Amino acid sequence: MATKVLVLSGGDSPEREVSLRSGSAVAVALKQTGYEVTNADPPGNLENLLPAMESADIVFPALHGKNGEDGTVQKFMEQHGVSFVGSGSQASELCFDKARYDRLLIKNDILTPKTELVTYEEFSNSSLSKLPFVLKPNDGGSSIDNIIVRDAGQKDMESIRQVFDRHRQMLLQELITGVETTVAVLGTEGLPVIEIVPPAEQEFDYENKYNGASQEICPPEHVSQSDQASARQLAVRIHQLCGCQDMSRTDIFISGGKLYVLETNTMPGLTDRSLFPIAAAAAGLDMPALCDRLVRSALKL
Q: Active-site residue 65, yes or no?
């Protein structure tokens, strides 16, 4: 009898549309592999979804953003003894809280950009805001509400004020220049490094992540073999340090031979444009094989 998988996607976060695309891609891939697949869009009250969760052999939460990969859904499933793909609630919560995650990395001698968690008033007074910087939500993903300023004298204060209206605190980081890379981890294996090249004179923002304008180069053209090996080892180390399960994806800037870690995503995008499937394909795993491996890993088969 076919293994029953409940795929969760959508939800109520700003990343809903990407999540729906991830869930659709996962469902199609699992059906191709012979699984019996049901899709569900998590309601505000997860109790309504519990019967569907309990009737499945495994739940695959292809959820992004708040209430999806911040540990909320994971904690609910843990409390009800539901088996699921991906990291547990503690690792999910840790990696979603970027300031807390940053402190853990620093404590373990892992290099990160200079970082402060700031309100709008604190932002205005911070020395980091006087230099090239990145401003991003402490608890968000998919580059939504990210602001990258390469000339601090030209910053758009009205746009900055607007993001602080949506987020009481933001993460303020020094802007690292160099080669932007990302490293997916599958199980405990670091997959091939991907070099990310935004369109000319543009950034790797929300729009350019999903419109096909950015280049995802694998193997990288501007990263040495030794730096690629170091990045893969570092991503696996962080995956284990944070207690991640099954999969993660860590963003790393390589600058002057140094590896600066930006963040780790416990539920990477799984659309046809997403970086995790691209890395898996470079390792010889197409989407059906990747999703099958994730389900089997979660079921410990």
A: no
Is there a catalytic annotation at residue 195? Answer: no
Q: What is the pLDDT of residues 66-119, one digit of tens each?
A: 888 999 999 999 999 999 999 999 999 999 999 999 999 999 999 999 999 999
Distance CA 137, CA 134 (A): 10
Select which of 69, 70, 216, 251 is catalytic: 251
Give the active site residue among 249, 260, 274, 293: 249
Backbone CA torsion sign across 26, 27, 29, 33: positive
* Predicted pLDDT at 201: 58
Average pLDDT of the residues of the chain? 92
Given CATH 3.75.10.10, say whether it is the number of domain 115-174: no
For the question of residue 100 being annotated catalytic, the response is no
Report how far residue 287's alpha carbon sits from residue 291's, in angstroms, rounded to the nearest whole number.
6
- 95-111+178-298 placed in CATH 2.60.40.420: no
Per annotation, catalytic residue among 13, 23, 269, 292 = 269
Annotated catalytic residue within 70, 102, 146, 210? 210
- pLDDT tens profile 190-207: 999 999 997 765 554 445
CATH classification code of 4-85 = 3.40.50.20
